Task: inverse folding
């Protein structure tokens, strides 16, 4: 059997044990929220006037359904007091200062908080304990429950006890920026607490099911921009120029589209990109004859030529004779880069020095991404001749770390990655060691493995598939296609299918297919039991 605890006792135990994580907060709070929603749908209100009726089973907060109460209304008194909030000026705070004879301040009291039961209620204010100002007017409706639920959520998330005057004062002073109370507080929870504990009843959430959905899917929710700024430590004390830079940085991050449609997050090859490693693979009949030095990677030779700032001939490394799609794709990429430079004033052509294959472990099931990691600004040029020559030139050795990956790692795991990487003074190996150490510090169970040796068999298969896809498209276009018997053949360079090879592969040595044994095998005879 599970021992029942009062909420206050449960809070004391958990605070002494280190407090609540975001998931812990929701595991305790959401059952209470669901039960309150059901009570409101039944036309009643929850027993949320203090903590006496709240219990904890395991980690879930609940109350006895028989303790639900009918609505208690005093609308005229509530409306009369609310008029103080709806004046011409929006009063955000009121304080009372007491001075001694020498003129020094002896006491400062926030008039938004009422700490004594006999203190008169002249305007909406916070009440000591888990109550709202409407309770003092003998009024209890669903919006009162929303307010008290916000106090309970603040207790779980920020470690506050509203029965203690000091905790209540701290909450009232920092309610607009709860990160002063808990730096690691999730912004969705901070946003929900601030809205639920509004003194103005019209500003509180009117739809609790929508609030429940927001908290259940807190990772997917948009956060108010001011809350993001409040999370920056020392933001209010920065000078104007620094604040402007921080605001612009945050605005840039909000422009990121964090979905698989963003090619900086999930890269998919298209005709606007070319994989130089695949394009360098010789399409030999025997894959075992392909040597590793024939494949273009970020090796010392290729990287050294680029980093010296001199044009590097791609014809030396790429397999133009067999990868027939290369000239047209490179021409298209070069044309797009020139058009971007003319329209926007800068070229967006980037060479990806390395990719990062990673998994978002906070999703269930884990989402796996292939993301470009290190991006280098390059210029692609073409020299016409009997055989056109394509050259690649590095514009500057200052590589950019994928901004989407930097944003995701900071938001998901709190890992800060550098914005740029100067490859003239450091190397990708040093950056790998840096990233591995940061991941190990965050979670020792997470490993980062470096793949610097190409898998020739896999690259050979992908390179052949890319060429076959191009040839199929060219065949559909009818480029020099002839027919002999039932075979299509062509001697066009873009659609090279010699008749001799077609005859050999079709009639002499047809390609093997692992499904062939199933399709050509005789069906197994069925046996029927005869009585």
Result:
């Amino acid at each position: 059997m599970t021992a029942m605890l009062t909420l206050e006792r449960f809070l004391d135990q958990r605070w002494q044990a280190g407090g609540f994580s975001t998931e812990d907060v929701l595991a305790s709070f959401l059952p209470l929220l669901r039960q309150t929603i059901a009570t409101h749908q039944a036309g009643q209100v929850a027993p949320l006037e203090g903590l006496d009726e709240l219990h904890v089973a395991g980690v879930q907060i609940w109350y006895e359904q028989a303790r639900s109460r009918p609505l208690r209304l005093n609308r005229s008194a509530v409306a009369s007091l609310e008029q103080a909030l709806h004046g011409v000026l929006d009063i955000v705070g009121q304080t009372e200062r007491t001075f001694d004879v020498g003129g020094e301040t002896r006491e400062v009291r926030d008039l938004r908080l009422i700490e004594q039961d006999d203190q008169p209620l002249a305007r909406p204010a916070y009440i000591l304990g888990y109550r709202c100002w409407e309770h003092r007017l003998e009024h209890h409706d669903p919006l009162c429950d929303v307010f008290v639920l916000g106090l309970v959520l603040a207790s779980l998330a920020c470690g506050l006890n509203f029965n203690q005057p000091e905790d209540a004062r701290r909450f009232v002073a920092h309610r607009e920026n709860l990160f002063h109370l808990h730096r690691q507080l999730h912004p969705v929870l901070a946003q929900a607490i601030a809205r639920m504990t509004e003194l103005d009843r019209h500003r509180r959430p009117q739809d609790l099911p929508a609030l429940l959905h927001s908290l259940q899917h807190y990772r997917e929710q948009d956060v108010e921009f001011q809350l993001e700024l409040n999370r920056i430590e020392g933001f209010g004390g920065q000078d104007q120029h620094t604040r402007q830079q921080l605001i612009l940085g945050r605005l840039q991050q909000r422009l990121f589209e964090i979905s698989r449609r963003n090619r900086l997050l999930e890269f998919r090859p298209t005709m606007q990109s070319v994989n130089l490693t695949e394009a360098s693979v010789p399409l030999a009949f025997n894959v075992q004859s392909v040597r590793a030095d024939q494949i273009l990677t970020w090796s010392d030779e290729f990287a050294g030529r680029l980093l010296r700032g001199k044009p590097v001939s791609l014809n030396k490394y790429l397999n133009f004779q067999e990868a027939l799609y290369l000239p047209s794709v490179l021409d298209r990429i070069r044309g797009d880069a020139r058009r971007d430079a003319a329209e926007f004033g800068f070229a967006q052509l980037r060479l990806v020095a390395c990719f990062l294959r990673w998994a978002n472990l906070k999703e269930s099931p884990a989402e796996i991404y292939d993301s470009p990691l290190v991006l280098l600004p390059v210029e692609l040029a073409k020299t016409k001749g009997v055989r056109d020559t394509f050259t690649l030139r590095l514009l500057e050795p200052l590589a950019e770390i994928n901004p989407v990956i930097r944003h995701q790692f900071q938001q998901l795991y709190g890992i800060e990655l550098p914005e740029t990487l100067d490859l003239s003074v450091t190397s990708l190996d040093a950056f790998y060691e840096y990233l591995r150490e940061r991941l190990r510090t965050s979670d020792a169970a997470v490993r980062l493995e470096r793949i610097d040796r190409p898998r020739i068999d896999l690259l050979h298969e992908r390179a052949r598939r890319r060429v076959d896809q191009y040839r199929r498209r060219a065949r559909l276009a009818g480029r020099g296609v002839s027919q002999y018997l039932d075979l299509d053949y062509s001697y066009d360079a873009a659609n090279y299918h010699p008749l001799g090879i077609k005859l050999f592969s079709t009639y002499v040595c047809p390609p093997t297919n692992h499904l062939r044994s199933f399709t050509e095998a005789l069906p197994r005879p069925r046996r029927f039991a005869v009585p």
In short: The two ends are 59 Å apart (CA to CA). Confidence is low (pLDDT under 50) at residues 524-531. The first strand starts at residue 4 and ends at 6. The chain is about 35% helix and 15% strand.
